[in-house]
Amino acid sequence: MADKLIQDIPLSILDLAPITEGSNAANTFKNSLRLAQRVEELGYNRYWLAEHHNMASVASSATSVLIGYIAGGTNTIRVGSGGIMLPNHAPLVVAEQFGTLASLYPGRIDLGLGRAPGTDQITARALRRNYMESAQDFPDDVMALQTYFSAENSSSKVRAVPGEGLDIPIWILGSSTDSARLAAHLGLPYAFASHFAPTQFMTAIDLYRRNFRPSQYLREPYVMACVNVIAADTTGEAERLATSFYQLATGIITGKRRPLQPPVDSMDGLWGDYEEAAVREMMKYTFIGDRKRIGSDLAYFQRHAQLDELMVTSHIYDPEARIHSYEVLKSVQNTSVLL
């Protein structure tokens, strides 16, 4: 089988609905909708939103509500979760919520599922008191969701209405080999969080492909990975925009989280040697530059990963610069700059 090039695969977007310094969640949601509408015009495939809690820079905590807002303001792009953190929720509630979304926006809703809480342990306990037990029950909860969505569940004493009988694609999200094994065992598509957890990326997707069992949902393995991309007209401008991302990542490393900060001319004094090394290791799959550099680097990445789909997230302070970054990326895919 011939290698898949970047030009051959769909491009999609992961949005954490970033709250920027000096702004608020209301503006964040408006900016996310504007971005979704623009990337729909550009031909992006999916627009996913990630569930996180108790974070000053992330407004996508009520993920299913926000998915409905984005889907309602767009027409064709698939909208979904990247993901719903299943230990935080009863499977029946998730089935009903996504059954509602799929009834409102048929053929456009994806359900990506993760086993982490998307927050700290204290907040996880506030979300769902038996979190540790719930995390261990993740495989059973995934299968419970499949049951709720099945038409055969119509004779059960507990039914998801709406949800029952609807075609709502379930994805397994992960950052380790455990999630790869589960996705392979269940015959489901697999999305890897290489944008912040690069260590086991190649091992996990290889394990998934080698152990994949065809299912009624998927005949062949399907791998999507998420990476960070910050693109601009010049590499110098892209590198300056990236300092907002570096500040955000430094806050994660140090535990001093803030709204997404404006870009700066230099990171001197904003991180030390340890923080810089930790950020660069955690953000290994980050592509920063102009069209030529982004094209070259992504072409190299795809040659090794052979993804079926690429998902991109871009932590950029200025909403217009963020939109333009996705415009640049799509122009890269649509031209011969990758060859």
Automatic annotation (TrEMBL):
GO terms for molecular function: oxidoreductase activity, acting on paired donors, with incorporation or reduction of molecular oxygen. Transmembrane segments: none annotated. SUPFAM superfamilies: Bacterial luciferase-like. It holds the Pfam family Bac_luciferase. GO terms for cellular component: cytosol. InterPro entries: Bact_Lucif_Oxidored, CmoO-like, Luciferase-like_dom, Luciferase-like_sf. Residues 13-247 form the Luciferase-like domain. To bacterial alkanal monooxygenase alpha and beta chains. This is Luciferase-like monooxygenase. The lineage of its organism: Bacteria, Pseudomonadati, Bacteroidota, Cytophagia, Cytophagales.
